[in-house]
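User: Could you check the structure of this?
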Amino acid sequence: MSRYSVVRRQHLPADTREGRVDLPAEAEHLRERIAVYRIDGALFYGDARRFAAEVESVEDGVDVVIIRCHRMSIYDASGGEAMGEVVRSLRRRGIQVVVQGMTAAQVRTSSLLDAVPPHRQVRELSQALAMAVDDLTVEA
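Assistant: Sure, the predicted structure tokens are below.
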């Protein structure tokens, strides 16, 4: 099953069900400080370490990581634990995390495991980018 799971860095703009989504022109200068990762397929025990290694390897200079889960089909307790570990690891480095696109069931799993704070989960990529921009402009 792990062959059907991929975690990859995604570059903006991105095509979504909302249409083509990108940073607003006035936030273009923040592009290098935001990293977007997309999970395709499963996040469970078979891929938890690979997911963690990929996302935690984000380069210095990135201050917000958006994890897109809209294509994540399986998310079990071990995936939730991995997600929580990644969020905590990035926070220790001073990096904010926004999780986008989880289903209602995945949000419940995430909440039960205390993996991602509810206020850091959003439905659409445009909302995730707005939160990232807010995080970076509040900090300035």
